[in-house]
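PROTEIN DESIGN WORKSHEET
SECTION A - STRUCTURE
LENGTH: 74
C-ALPHA CELLS:
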C-alpha cells in the first residue's frame, strides 16, 4: 500500500494467544496470503523488527506541496 506522505507502507495483522506457559502467534500482511506462525515471543519480535527496519530503509515519499508549508530555508 502506498501512503501519500510515508511512501510504501506495510500493515500486519498479528494474533497472539497466551495460555499459562504457551505462546502462539500468527502474522499475515494485510492484503497478503502468506501466514507466518510463531511459537515464542522473541521470534515474533525479531520478525516485526526486521519488517520495520526494511520499511525504514525505503526512500521517503516526497511531501506534496499544498501551499501551507513554508519555503525551505525560511
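SECTION B - SEQUENCE
RESIDUE ASSIGNMENT:
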Amino acid at each position: 500500500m502506498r501512503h501519500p506522505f510515508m511512501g510504501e507502507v506495510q500493515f500486519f495483522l498479528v494474533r497472539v494467544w497466551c495460555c499459562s506457559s504457551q505462546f502462539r502467534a500468527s502474522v499475515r500482511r494485510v492484503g497478503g496470503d502468506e501466514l507466518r506462525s510463531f511459537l515464542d515471543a522473541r521470534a515474533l519480535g525479531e520478525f516485526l523488527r526486521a519488517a520495520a527496519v526494511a520499511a525504514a530503509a525505503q526512500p521517503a515519499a516526497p511531501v506534496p506541496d499544498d501551499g501551507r508549508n513554508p519555503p525551505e530555508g525560511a
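SECTION C - NOTES
The mean pLDDT is 77.
The longest strand covers residues 12-19.
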